[in-house]
Write the structure tokens for this entry.
Amino acid sequence: MSDTRQAIMRSAADLFAELGYRNTSIRAIAADAGCDPALVPHYFDSKEALFSAVVADTVRPAEVLREALRRGDAGAAEWLLRHAVADWEDPVQGRRILGVLRSVLDLPVARERMSRALLPRDVADSRPDEVRVWLVSSLFIGIMTSRHMGLLDETLFKEGGEAAVDALAPVVGALLGADGPDA
């Protein structure tokens, strides 16, 4: 990935997090990235395409969920939760994820981009796996939102989030299908 493209992605992620999708302009992204505004559409077809790239890079939902579904074992839930907690607790990554969520709540086009980013292409052909992805994603969005609002006890996220992982692993495991009747 070129340095300019990376700078655009970084700036877009930060500005989407700070201002939301609607209030972030291509000009502001270019200015923050230190490049000519004409370079943004050179690397990304549109603001929507740039947002999609930021979602895929920031949240990385499809690759992570695909791996958890592929594993299909009891450890998949803990692996997925540890990954999620690490992202939520990272100051930069957590802020960017919240920014993506704010944008998704604010704008239908952002919601559509996030929906596409959440569902791995190979999962879209399997209705049971698609339902699992939506349920796990919804649970994680609720947890992160509740965490951000201060509705969850801080001790759940101390020491790498061990308490949160322990509490949520059975639920996430069931949603992934690891603990279901076919497991």
Remarks:
- The radius of gyration is 17 Å.
